[in-house]
């Protein structure tokens, strides 16, 4: 699909990075397998500044990644650390030396397959106003659990009742492609990351979504916390008429059941959120049974 290796600006946020180093190393291993030239900027909290050199030495073990450990400015404390990359992102976009810009949480396993799908379908969806999205999941006892979108969705209906006072209007996009039958919007478009090409990045850096003081209001009843809003991208900008956001996930018939293909699923490291569902005595829904 790519005539030459894409050049990618990637940023991760790592609060007290040594306390979760195994997870981040596992995530970086995924990025090292990409067929791309990646400059990876890892932003750590100010309190961890003394281990900056040690962490830099550790991540230099990745030969196919150019990793740079940066200490965040004092203003980026706690969850605000997820916003520490924004000034550098703006600068990088203005210089235009990269083809793609990615911010991801340091426990999200974005794969080359995920990125390739996004890059392929972004121009194909452009005429519709929608952009490729993903569904987050955790691997639990051999099953993929979509913990962010835990309502089984009926594709035969446009407006879905999700509980007292909460309805969701699903948008559907048909497409002629051998790997995808259609695209649909999920209730929650959050996937712990954002991918932007140069065109989208130039829009993003002057949009409401990059402003931490007002972006949360764009999410409506979802009320994403500040950290989640950092990976909003253009999900709530220039929303197509009748839609609630602009991120869509692909669907492909698996026998008689529509399901999100593997390239449209992004894995969250561990089983923390699945365990919360189990502790609430809720029945587990798996990714292959999200739609009827």
What is the topology?
Elements: E1 7-14, H1 21-32, E2 37-44, H2 52-59, E3 65-71, H3 86-95, E4 100-105, E5 108-109, H4 112-125, E6 131-132, E7 135-140, E8 143-145, E9 159-161, E10 167-169, E11 172-177, E12 180-185, E13 193-197, H5 198-204, H6 226-229, E14 247-254, E15 257-259, E16 265-268, H7 272-279
Parallel strand pairs: 1-2, 1-4, 2-3, 6-14, 7-16
Antiparallel strand pairs: 4-13, 5-16, 7-8, 9-10, 11-12, 12-14, 14-15
What does this entry look like structurally?
The longest helix is centred in the middle third of the chain and has 14 residues, at 112-125. The chain has a five-stranded mixed β-sheet with strand order 3-2-1-4-13, sandwiched between helices. Strands 6, 11, 12, 14 and 15 form a five-stranded mixed β-sheet that branches. It has a four-stranded mixed β-sheet with strand order 5-16-7-8. It has seven helices and 16 strands. It folds into two domains: 1-106 and 191-223, Pyruvate Kinase, Chain: A, domain 1 (3-Layer(aba) Sandwich), CATH 3.40.1380; 113-189 and 235-292, no CATH class. The chain has helices spanning 21-32, 52-59, 86-95, 112-125, 198-204, 226-229, 272-279; strands at 7-14, 37-44, 65-71, 100-105, 108-109, 131-132, 135-140, 143-145, 159-161, 167-169, 172-177, 180-185, 193-197, 247-254, 257-259, 265-268. 22% of the residues lie in helices and 27% in strands. With 292 residues, it is α/β, with parallel strands linked by helices. β1 (7-14), α1 and β2 (37-44) form a beta-alpha-beta unit.
Give the number of domains: 2
Instruction: Characterize the overall form.
Output: globular
Structural class: alpha/beta
DSSP strand content: 25-35%
CATH topology of the largest domain: Pyruvate Kinase, Chain: A, domain 1
Mean pLDDT reading = 94
- Structural Rg: 19 Å
Euclidean distance between termini CA atoms: 33 Å
Order of helices and strands: EHEHEHEEHEEEEEEEEHHEEEH
Describe the main β-sheet briefly: 5 strands, mixed
So, CATH architecture of the largest domain? Answer: 3-Layer(aba) Sandwich
Tell me roughly what share of residues is in helical segments.
Answer: 10-25%
By DSSP (H or I, 4+ residues per run), the number of helices equals 7
Total strand segments: 16
Please identify the top-level CATH class of the largest domain: Alpha Beta
Q: Low-confidence stretches at least 5 residues in length (pLDDT < 50)? A: none
Strands of the widest sheet, in order across it, are 3-2-1-4-13
């Amino acid at each position: 699909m790519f005539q030459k290796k894409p050049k990618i600006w990637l940023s991760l946020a790592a609060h007290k990075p040594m306390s979760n180093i195994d997870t981040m190393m596992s995530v970086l291993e995924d990025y090292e397998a990409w067929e791309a030239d990646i400059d990876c900027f890892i932003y750590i909290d100010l309190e961890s500044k003394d281990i900056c050199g040690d962490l830099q030495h550790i991540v230099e073990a990745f030969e196919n990644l150019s990793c740079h450990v940066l200490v965040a400015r004092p203003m980026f404390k706690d969850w605000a650390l997820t916003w520490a990359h924004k000034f550098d992102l703006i600068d990088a976009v203005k210089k235009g030396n990269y083809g793609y810009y990615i911010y991801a949480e340091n426990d999200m396993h974005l794969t080359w397959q995920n990125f390739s799908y996004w890059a392929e379908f972004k121009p194909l969806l452009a005429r519709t106003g929608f952009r490729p999205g993903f569904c987050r999941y955790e691997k639990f006892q051999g099953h993929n659990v979509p913990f962010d979108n835990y309502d089984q969705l009926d594709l035969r209906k446009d407006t879905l009742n999700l509980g007292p006072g909460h309805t969701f209007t699903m948008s559907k996009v048909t497409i002629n492609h051998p790997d995808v039958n259609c695209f649909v919007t999920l209730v929650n478009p959050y996937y712990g990351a954002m991918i932007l090409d140069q065109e989208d990045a130039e829009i993003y850096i002057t949009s409401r979504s990059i402003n931490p003081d007002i972006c949360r209001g764009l999410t409506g009843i979802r009320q994403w916390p500040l950290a989640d809003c950092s990976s909003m991208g253009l999900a709530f900008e220039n929303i197509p008429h009748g839609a609630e956001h602009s991120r869509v996930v692909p669907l492909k018939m698996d026998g008689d059941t529509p399901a999100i293909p593997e390239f449209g699923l992004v894995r969250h490291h561990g089983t923390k959120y699945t365990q919360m569902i189990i502790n609430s005595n809720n029945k587990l829904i798996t990714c292959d049974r999200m739609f009827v």
